[in-house]
Write a structure and sequence with these properties.
Blueprint (H helix, E strand, L loop, with lengths): L3 E2 H8 L2 E4 L7 E2 L4 E2 L17 E4 L1 H9 L2 H13 L4 E4 L7 H10 L2 E4 L4 H15 L2 E6 L1 E5 L2 E7 L5 H10 L3 E4 L2 E8 L2 E5 L7 E4 L3 E4 H5 L7 E3 L2 E7 L14 E5 L2 E10 L5 H16 L4 H11 L1
Helix pairs in contact: 3-4, 6-8
Length: 302
Amino acid sequence: MNTITIKQLADKLKLEILAGEKGLDCVIDSDDIHRPGLELTGYFKFFPKERIQLLGKQEITYLHTLTEEERDERIGTVIKKRPPCIIITRNQEGLDYLIKHCSEEGVALLRAKEKTTNVISKLNNYLGKELAKSIGIHAVCVNVFGVGLLIRGESGIGKSESALSLIEKGHRLISDDLVILKKIDPESLIGTHNQNNRDFLSLRGIGMINVPRLYGSGAFQDETAINLDIILSAWDEKKYYDAIEHPNEVVEYLDVSIPHLEIPVRPGRDIASLIEVAAKNWRLEQQGYTAFNEFNERIQNQ
């Protein structure tokens, strides 16, 4: 199970730390967020203490209408249950009572400048990706014409060299050698790097190169949706390769099916251009068009 710390969350979303610094090492393993409502009226039967607690303008305004005794009792009870952290939105002030309770209990109190809906959106997006189920695979990940591609194959088949040719054509590298796949919903995967290999491409005979430094920041991006899985294989003279229609094959990662095709490699084949065509062809197929169907209709009409 993936986890992140409150400190990582605060740094990523640029949240101000108001109190409870001892709680910054607290670990988050749930991407759910809770806005205390009934709890502020004194009802705690189903309080999800394992979730991040978010207090927007509505909640803080209500707290300010309570007497000091009522406020200390209700928000104090929320904090004593030790949620991962409490986030205040809209840069709201007058939070001395929250600072007091969070400091006493060691619960991190964070504050965001944005309005509540924006903060919720950012939290959902960040937590959903960071806590998603993930695996690492040996491949190269690139984005070609907005299509996220995995390029796989045996070592030395030319994966990184193909990625370099694609970069020189104006496409973007995501990760070389090790690709981290994350399942962000039941039918979607994103591909990214593992931070250590960010920006780098390794080429036999040359070594490591830093792609953004050589080709500019536009040659790299942090992540991409995975749309197509391509495997490069050595050309086999005994094998028949159909040049008319490719089979509708899929491969599964984390129980998500990804369209799959094989590109045989031999001297003289422009693999980067073939990968570009595969990406364009995938986009056409998503729009309901396949060249084979049109070709077949022409034959039948004759």
